[in-house]
Recover the amino acids of this structure.
């Protein structure tokens, strides 16, 4: 018996998520089910992909994840189950949701689910709720041990998944460049793809200022010297700070305020961030 973790863009204002839970408990009443989030922005495949990366490795090998952000539901897009290098399983539409996992964790095996036959009994006439009828149903079968990974779907080369473009960070002696991948939503801090190891290579010290520039499609949207801190407590209220976030990447926030709202900064590959040392620094 393995844990089952669920992510959607459905919200909790109607019965969709509740129905998914019900299907899983029909398969195996003793299942343990947890929510990753149901507040992904509707149709935002990028954020769904990143939130999986944020969470999966903190769960034991064998944990089964369901991610349903599916603007192409009912089309010819495929339903897949992926086995990660760290041992977790992910059931999701093959629409780019696996991009961050494939890039930063690795997929070892991939299988394509037959949506016509491998689904909840009596649901064949419904073509708009695969989250309930295909993904949650099969995830519960996997998590409960009713079927094994090798018994679901048909094998497919792992390289065949759909992915969207993501840019990797870069570092020179003078400049660090990355993207603003996502927000720490509740608090409005920016999470970049810049690893904390870049700061170690530069030997950046706490309280040291760096010149931060943020661009949207090559247009400068923010530029200021910002200190590197252990946490938000190292700066005054409403003062910006660079810090190492919980994924060990560089974050940028305001103490007791939202950086994203204050400076109207968004996320995604169109939002670039560069960091530079003072000219008189090494």
């Amino acid at each position: 018996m393995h844990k089952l973790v669920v992510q959607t863009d459905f919200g909790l204002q109607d019965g969709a998520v509740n129905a998914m839970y019900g299907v899983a408990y029909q398969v195996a009443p003793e299942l343990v089910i947890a929510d990753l989030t149901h507040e992904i922005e509707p149709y935002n495949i990028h954020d769904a992909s990143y939130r999986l990366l944020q969470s999966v490795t903190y769960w034991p090998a064998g944990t089964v994840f369901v991610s349903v952000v599916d603007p192409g539901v009912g089309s010819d897009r495929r339903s897949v189950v992926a086995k990660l290098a760290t041992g977790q399983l992910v059931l999701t539409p093959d629409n780019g949701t696996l991009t961050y996992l494939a890039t930063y964790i690795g997929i070892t095996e991939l299988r394509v689910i037959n949506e016509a036959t491998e689904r909840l009994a009596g649901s064949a006439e419904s073509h708009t709720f695969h989250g309930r009828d295909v993904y949650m149903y099969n995830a519960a079968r996997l998590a409960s041990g009713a079927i094994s990974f090798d018994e679901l779907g048909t094998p497919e080369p792992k390289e065949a998944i759909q992915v969207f473009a993501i840019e990797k960070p870069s570092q020179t002696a003078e400049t660090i460049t990355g993207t603003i991948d996502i927000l720490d939503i509740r608090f409005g801090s920016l999470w970049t793809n810049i690893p904390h190891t870049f700061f170690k290579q530069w030997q950046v010290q706490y309280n040291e200022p760096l010149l931060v520039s943020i661009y949207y499609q090559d247009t400068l949207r923010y530029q200021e010297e910002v200190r590197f801190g252990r946490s938000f407590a190292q700066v005054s209220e409403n003062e910006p700070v660079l810090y190492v976030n919980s994924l060990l990447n560089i974050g940028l926030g305001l103490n007791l305020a939202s950086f994203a709202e204050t400076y109207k900064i968004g996320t995604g590959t169109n939002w670039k961030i560069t960091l530079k040392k003072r000219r008189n620094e090494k």
The domain at 4-160 is CATH 3.40.50.10790 (Rossmann fold). The chain has a mean pLDDT of 96.
